[in-house]
Design goal:
mainly alpha, 13 helices
Length: 403
């Protein structure tokens, strides 16, 4: 009995040990726990500031290049028209002006801080986009067939680039002789049409008095515009030692950002909402609207508003990257989102203004009140967003002063 019991106990112990061994062998050996890789930190605010400045310079150069390219196409269309003046070639030249003008509009956001376009000493802005203009300074107007430089060969025997550049704003600010609006007037003529643009006849370039001088003036003004735009492209070109872009990206980053944000803040309220919209709106003056000969003023307003949006978001259409919004979001995401919405709303409201703009300036036009309300809403939106632009600048340590 004792022998059997011993054998039984030994068998039970061995069986239990074998079962335990098999159970342990069936469980996988746990892998050592891996240490997680740290999440890469985003750029610091200071690094982001430098990125925003560098990308802004890329955007400025890209948009000035686009403007030069379309202005070059316009110049070609004008040359074709002058070589063969017909209603069809005149219309083609007008269409080319409209396309080129739309490309120029957003570049207005690159002004108001003494950059290459509006440097006090030699900035060409007044030669490119000065307005409002006294059209009688250049050519005949209703009631004065002998008005203007074109119709005064005794005093100005030869139409040259040096001449019309020297005469720009000579004697009065409205004595504009060069740039977009001089070309516009020479293509469309005075706008005597209450519901449409000017309608200069082709005969002004064929059989009318001083047709040859008018043609020379138009060709010269177009060529001169290309020279001035090319200068801006060169000033912002990358990899050029000593040009404006090299100095801009090399200056103190806060100073550069002050320039950038001042540009969009000043355009937003003082220039676009104020000079370009409120003045004409309150005075009901067609002479004070921006592109009065072609009735392109609404498109001008939209283009300027989009320029502000491009600088803020960093999306220039041609190139994209960090904009002012990214910098603001790094310190105050709520304000960044708010301002993005305000700027987008201004663009939308500008786009809702019925064209032509001068319809909203005359009291005799039916339903003008509705059009005037659309203008007023856009003005108020632009003014309101400017306060947020100033606040955004403060959030990133920049103090700007805008009118």
């Amino acid at each position: 009995m004792r022998k059997r019991l011993g054998i039984f106990l030994i068998s039970s112990i061995l069986g239990s040990m074998l079962a335990l061994t098999l159970a342990c062998a069936s469980e996988p050996t746990p892998e050592p726990t891996a240490t997680p890789e740290p999440t890469p930190a985003g750029p610091s605010v200071q690094e982001l500031k430098s990125d925003v400045v560098a990308h802004y310079a890329n955007g400025v150069h890209a948009l000035y290049t686009k403007s030069l390219n379309s202005a070059t196409a316009m110049d070609t269309a004008i040359d074709i028209f002058l070589a063969d003046p017909t209603p069809a070639t005149l219309e083609a030249a007008k269409r080319a002006w409209l396309v080129a003008r739309d490309d120029y509009g957003p570049t207005e956001a690159f002004r108001f801080y003494g950059g290459p376009i509006d440097n006090e000493e030699d900035g060409p802005e007044g030669l490119i986009n000065a307005w409002p203009m006294d059209e009688a300074y250049i050519d005949y107007v209703e009631g004065d067939s002998g008005a203007g430089i074109i119709n005064n060969p005794d005093e100005y025997p030869e139409i040259t680039a040096a001449l019309i550049e020297s005469l720009n704003e000579e004697g009065a600010e409205e004595n504009i002789s060069t740039g977009w609006h001089a070309i516009e007037f020479l293509l469309w003529g005075q706008d005597m049409n209450e519901i449409g643009p000017g309608s200069r006849p082709v005969s002004d370039y064929t059989s009318a008095d001083n047709a040859d001088r008018r043609a020379a003036y138009l060709a010269t003004a177009s060529d001169l515009l290309l020279i001035h735009l090319r200068g801006l492209v060169d000033a912002w070109a990358s990899g050029v030692s000593g040009n404006y872009r090299a100095d801009f990206v090399g200056k103190d980053v806060d100073e550069a950002l002050n320039n950038i944000i001042t540009g969009i803040g000043e355009l937003s309220r003082g220039e676009l909402a104020g000079e370009r919209m409120t003045v004409a709106y309150e005075a009901r003056s067609q002479e004070d609207e921006h592109s009065c000969f072609s009735d392109n003023t609404v498109a001008d307003i939209i283009g300027n508003a989009r320029g502000i949006q491009m600088v803020y978001t960093g999306d220039y259409g041609i190139v994209t990257g960090p904009g002012v919004m990214d910098l603001v979001a790094a310190v105050n995401d709520e304000l960044a989102v708010l301002l993005n919405g305000e700027i987008g709303r201004s663009v939308a409201l500008a786009s809702e203004i019925p064209s032509p703009f001068d319809l909203h300036l005359r009291e005799t036009i039916p339903n003008s009140d509705a059009g005037r309300q659309s203008v007023l809403r856009a003005i108020e939106s632009l003014e309101g967003q400017t306060d947020s632009i100033v606040s955004a600048a403060e959030q990133v340590g920049i103090t700007i002063s805008v009118s």
